[in-house]
Design a protein that fits this description.
This protein is of the alpha/beta class. The chain has two domains: about 200 residues, Alpha-Beta Complex (inorganic pyrophosphatase (n-terminal core)); about 120 residues, Diaminopimelate Epimerase, Chain A, domain 1, CATH 3.10.310.30. The chain has eleven helices and 14 strands. The strands form three sheets. A six-stranded parallel sheet has the order 3-2-1-4-5-6, covered by helices on one side. Strands 7-8-9-10-12-11 form a six-stranded mixed sheet, with helices on both faces. It has a two-stranded antiparallel ribbon with strand order 13-14. The longest helix is centred in the N-terminal third of the chain and has 16 residues. The radius of gyration is 20 Å and the shape is globular.
């Protein structure tokens, strides 16, 4: 894929901007927020005003990201360019509501690697073959000979480590390994990244994981293993939704099924589904899209209305 034209158009648009609003998706992970932080640092170096805004709370587990404290709780009114990171559709970043705040619609740039991206931007820097949005950001920086500082490198590598499951899931490719190596040479703090993202789990989170693992079932007619997590589980284990992070990827190691699914009740009365697969001939994003969601071929998600209840014949969605 020749990205020269899109790289150049993105670069030119940002260079001419008066004030750029950088938006990660809702409840951002280190790939989404990391991408926004990398571009914020570069724009600040160029004396181009930039503000990072997130419409939802941010998992404190990613507070180690350099620049985490720069996220604003308000939106300036003089924005002329909006750059959205790692969001396959506009609503996942609350973009429509944000755009309504401006008397004149800003230019929208989507920087993303989801195969399900619906190309909502005026400029769509979308490359599904990239292992992470920060890996795509890395390519953009390299194309324009932008120096990658050690803080940029840490934010980029954090996103790459997250989306590749520490270079172990199907998103891991030769390009991802080469980028990771270069980012470490640039000063990325790999030990801090792995410790913060993968190894810190409170006791309550481990209890919650235990409940989910104890409920794993394999559907008798389909090659899929599934489990459920209820709001009661959250309350009993005294955890937040962020404590579930990583469970879907962990379940992806189940050997005797093609697809794994976690169904989780949300506080708003919905059910969130997380799909994973390691099979080359399976694309779980198609299942997610059919249910109103999206994602990658090997990792996708959806949200549907309903509650999960236990009956005499098993768990049911009502």
């Amino acid at each position: 894929m020749d990205l020269t034209g899109t790289f150049n158009k993105t670069h030119a648009t940002l260079q001419k901007a008066q004030h750029v609003l950088l938006i990660p998706h809702r409840h951002p992970d280190s790939d989404s927020l990391g991408g926004a932080l990398v571009f914020h640092e570069w724009l600040e170096q160029k004396n181009i005003r930039a503000t990072i805004y997130c419409a939802t709370e941010i998992n404190p587990n990613i507070s180690f990201l350099p620049g985490y404290h720069l996220v604003s709780e308000s939106i300036p009114d003089d924005i002329d360019v909006v750059c959205v990171f790692d969001s396959g559709d506009a609503q996942f970043a609350y973009l429509p509501e944000i755009l309504e705040k401006f008397p004149k619609r800003p230019t929208v740039i989507s920087v993303d690697h989801h195969v399900s991206n619906d190309m909502y931007g005026d400029i769509n820097l979308v490359v599904p073959t990239c292992a992470s949005t920060t890996a795509l950001s890395y390519q953009f920086f390299k194309h324009h000979n932008i120096h990658i500082t050690h803080t940029m490198a840490t934010n980029m590598l954090a996103g790459l480590v997250t989306d590749t499951g520490i270079f172990s899931n199907p998103a891991t490719n030769i390009q991802a390994m080469e980028i990771g190596s270069d980012l470490m040479n640039a000063g990325a703090r790999i030990e801090r990244i792995v410790t913060s993202l993968m190894r810190i789990k409170p006791i309550g989170a481990l209890k919650l994981w235990g409940r989910a693992l104890s409920r794993i079932e394999k559907h008798p007619n389909h090659d899929i293993a599934y489990t459920i997590i209820t709001q009661k589980d959250h309350k009993d284990c005294d955890v937040t939704k962020d404590d579930i992070a990583g469970l879907a990827n962990f379940l992806n190691s189940v050997a005797d099924c093609a697809v794994t699914l976690i169904l989780k009740e949300t506080e708003k009365g919905n059910i969130k589904g997380s799909l994973r697969t390691t099979q080359k001939n399976v694309d779980v994003s198609k299942f997610a899209i059919a249910l109103g969601g999206g994602g990658h071929a090997k990792a996708a998600g959806f949200t549907i209305p309903g509650k999960i209840t236990e009956t005499s014949s098993g768990w049911k969605i009502i």
